[in-house]
């Protein structure tokens, strides 16, 4: 009842209309997806019943349509076919058992609050993964669309089998499939508000009955059981064989569920509860298994249809549920004459909509590495089959994340004439550093994977700069550390001290300071070398090096606000008692900070914090050193 509380009766008309529209699209679609899963078409209707009912009661999204969908259907076929060994009864039992195990896994994840698993697949991975799934779906329908017998245990085997058998194409079947596919695209283009798949079902079924298309060798889906399915707990004797595949199905189904729910919630300024979605999806899958269905997830196309038709709450899903029940009770004899070629055409139509060509173009325009990740996921699904493709996609996402954090962006900061704050000298050729002082920023949390990278790159930066007396580590981006990182910072401090360079830190948040105190780094650095802001670090440097010219002081005080650009959240360490800012600095702090935030420095494309991995940068530092001539002392 999460989305049904405080229901506004003014929503009823839109919800009922949206429910009828979605039902008209859902009925032929889930029948097609049932065939994709290797089950009788009626199994898709059975699986839709608990999904529509239970998600409406437990889900946190007002627009999401849950039920059979293409990806989980295809994964079901991939998992079950080798285990069933051609036995239809065992096949159906295994599919129902898979749904129950997926539901149980979702409930376990809900109980221990693992909603964050929805974030394990990045956008490039999903774009490539869905395109690969679409290709598998299309190849899987070649037999239905052409009448050519297709076999083979792999995707390439099926393709080769089809090519060898092309001489056996059944012309009437191929023509009917092509006509239905063309009709679907015509309706989508010319009459987008009409339920194209439902019209295709009705017209193809009517043509089969009127013109006796079965006499021409066109196959139909055959008799569909009337009435509602009996409740039965599936046999889980194959639990061990189904557990790992169920993890993959759950991960993909839940990720798709959350991405779709969040996208539509953002349109209406609503919120989606990730953990509540685990509960709703888990119960829906349990219900599907008990009603002899197969794993379910969300449908982006049905959700978009409901939203466009005016759905304001999950009452539209309950309306669709009533219409599906009526279909099972009264319309089964009519649907038995539906041609399988038309069913295959509907699946191909749905598959082609999964290929996001604008998404590939957007990735290519943004960053080449993002496009390569999408292509790698696409190839992984095709080469390793869909289940292992999912695991490969997750591994790629995690590897990409680690690569970005392990080799992040870094910067030497300087003063830019006319721009408030301190900024990366490589973003601004006119930037100037303070003579003798290097302020270095490392744009990532510190942990074992990047600790030595920080040390190496900081030393390389010092080696390329002239006559460094002080090195100040700007820690505004260091919001998390581990003991390996602490040891690396201590090594860096020791090496710089041996060179006669003073090591200090600025923008140390209280959480980081607590860790430094526990490790002993705060005492090693010295409390008087840990600064609240960059201006106070500069003031302390000038206090010890009064030879800095008045011209340099004027350049600094006229350009630098009381803080550099933004700083980040969290509590900062109080200013050390041994070092005070110059007189008058506090009075000038607030207005200049506001100006600094209002005039954020532009950044070059691809140079975001946590950006893509980059090699060592001594040469780059050398180029930067030529560009950043120091303010004369």
Automatic annotation (TrEMBL):
Composition bias type Low complexity, residue spans: 624-633
TM segment ranges: 12-32, 38-58, 65-85, 91-112, 124-142, 162-186, 198-219, 239-259, 315-335, 341-360, 372-399
Keywords, sorted A to Z: Membrane, Transmembrane, Transmembrane helix
CDD domains given in the database record: STAS_SulP_like_sulfate_transporter
Membrane association type: Multi-pass membrane protein
Domain of life: Bacteria
Every STAS domain range: 427-541
Biased composition (Basic and acidic residues): 561-578
One Pfam family this sequence matches: STAS
Alphabetical list of InterPro entries matching this protein: SLC26A/SulP_dom, SLC26A/SulP_fam, STAS_dom, STAS_dom_sf
Intracellular or extracellular location(s): Membrane
Region (Disordered): 542-633
NCBIfam families: sulP
Protein name from the UniProt record: SulP family inorganic anion transporter
Organism (species): Catellatospora aurea
Lineage of the organism: Bacteria, Bacillati, Actinomycetota, Actinomycetes, Micromonosporales
